[in-house]
Amino acid sequence: SVFFIAQSLLALAQYDESKVPPYTLPELMVTQAGKKVRTVKEWEAQRRPEILALFAEQVYGKTPTKKLRIHFETVSTDRQALNSLATRKQIRAYFTDDRQHYMDILLYTPNAAQKPVPVFLGLNFSGNQSIHADPGILITKRWVPDWKDPGLINNQATEANRGARARRWPVEEILARGYGLATVYYGDLQPDRADSFDESIHSLFYNKGQTVPSPDEWGAIGTWAWGLSRAMDYLETDQDVDKKRVAVMGHSRLGKAALWAGAQDPRFALVISNDSGEGGAAITRRQYGEQIKRINTSFPHWFAGNYKQYNDRENDLPVDFHELIAIMAPRPVYVASASEDQWSDPKGEYLSLYHAGPVYALYGRSTLTTPIPPEVEVPVGQKTWTGYHMRNGKHDILLYDWDKFMNFADFHFKRK
Ligand code: GCU
User: Fold this and answer.
1) Which residue of 284, 290, 301 sits with most ligand 1 atoms within 8 Å of its CB, as the best mutation to test the pocket?
2) ipTM of the predicted structure?
3) Which residues pair with 122 in a beta bridge?
4) What is residue 342's three-state secondary structure?
5) CA distance 310 to 293
6) Which atom of ligand 1 sits closest to the CA of residue 276?
7) CA-based, 20 to 30 A from 33: which of 10, 75, 123, 371?
């Protein structure tokens, strides 16, 4: 049962800070050829591309360079959605001319705000209908993991699933602060199962005769990140959206996807990771909470095949996750943890952000000033380029988190 699986995962996890092994992080500011990086130019021309390529080849897998001819079709527009608070648009992005592959973008923009507005973009776990009870949202027809939410029956969403995850998506609060919200169901890119490659967008990129990704090609996180960039392609064309102020965000596995999307796609002006943990914001060399072997075993489809080489060999990985954050620079990054979410290693998440600091310093941007994480619910770095907080409580994303994300976005997007 789920209970016993959870128990055995806990039994394997390491939660004792005194047992964190001594480790040396890969040198952020030294090229693979051993040259010290001293200028923005050297960073951008040499070191940044090296790190990006390592994450692609060794961690998430390479995203195909082939461009599909994507056709965006606005399926519905309602200017009086949510008691006239918002305009709701639903856009179907067709990936193929035969219309067999597509994703649905749900976009709310605040009617009261002056256009174009800044937007938060994030993937959701169980279909667009789950984020709000709004009866106008299309219900996904895709396979949905068995989250035990109301209205999820035999892996299909039903009417009763509307708003089941509304707690994680404070839509009215986001609109009231002058932001738009865009979301896509991650299963539109790849259903979150190990045997889902045939049902995913992978097949659109295979070479002749290919049936599975090769070891250096993308896994599911890569397809989810790709979907975020395709949603960005649409947002760039929408008159109500300010394409220079789009923040990409995500919780947990979708926080990993948001970080990978932000790393690859510089159009995202701000990047937010909530409880992304192992394979996301956390320093993997700490071997605290979830570790590489565990994640590759539970979720063999998430990362590149190559990543399995690092099972129980964290120190051999040529990168660590502070470098994933560093390659966002000089764009602002926000990392959020939760005190009871030790599986995601809150301290490791904080340290990644802290150790990305030297690259921000090259750009003259202020960051965190200490390797010691703050107390619970004492946000830090809010008016710098790297913000962080640890919410009190469990692995989740709540209004407390969103409120801090919006404060951070206000500083970067609305500062005069
Ligand atoms: C599991 C997994 C994590 C992931 C999380 C989530 O706990 O081990 O790596 O972040 O699911 O997506 O909620």
Assistant:
1) 290
2) 0.96
3) 183, 249
4) helix
5) 7
6) 10
7) 371
SS (H, E, C) 49-89: HHHHHHHHHHHHCECCCCCCCCEEEEEEEEEEHHHHCEEEE
Quick: pLDDT tens for 300-318. 999 999 999 999 999 999 9
Whether 8 has a pLDDT exceeding 90, the answer reads no
Distance separating alpha carbons of residues 184 and 121, to the nearest angstrom: 8
Pocket-testing residue among 126, 193, 252, 349, ligand 1, by greatest number of atoms within 8 A of Cβ = 252
Distance 18 CA to ligand 1 centre (A): 24
Nearest to 335 by CA among 358, 367, 309, 366: 367
**DSSP reduced 3-state for 247:** strand
- Token code pair at residue 38: 């001293």
- In tens, the pLDDT along 340-388 reads 999 999 999 999 999 999 999 999 999 999 999 999 999 999 999 999 9
- For range 91-108, the mean pLDDT: 97
H helices present in 145-266, as ranges: 171-176, 220-235, 253-264
- H or E element at residue 333: strand 333-338
Residue nearest to atom 13 of ligand 1 (CA): 252
Question: Is-catalytic flag, 214?
Answer: no
How far is the centre of ligand 1, averaged over its atoms, from the C-alpha of 192 (Å)?
A: 12
| 318-327 tens-digit pLDDT | 999 999 999 9
330: phi then psi, degrees, rounded to nearest 5: -90, 15
What are the pocket residues of ligand 1 if the criterion is a CB atom closer than 6 Å to any ligand atom? 252-253, 277-278, 290, 295, 298, 343
The C-alpha atoms of residue 256 and residue 201 are separated, in whole angstroms, by 19
Parallel, antiparallel or unpaired: strands 152-153 and 156-157: antiparallel
Average pLDDT over residues 169-185: 98
Report the separation in Å between the CA atom of 397 and the middle of ligand 1, taken as the mean of its atom positions: 13
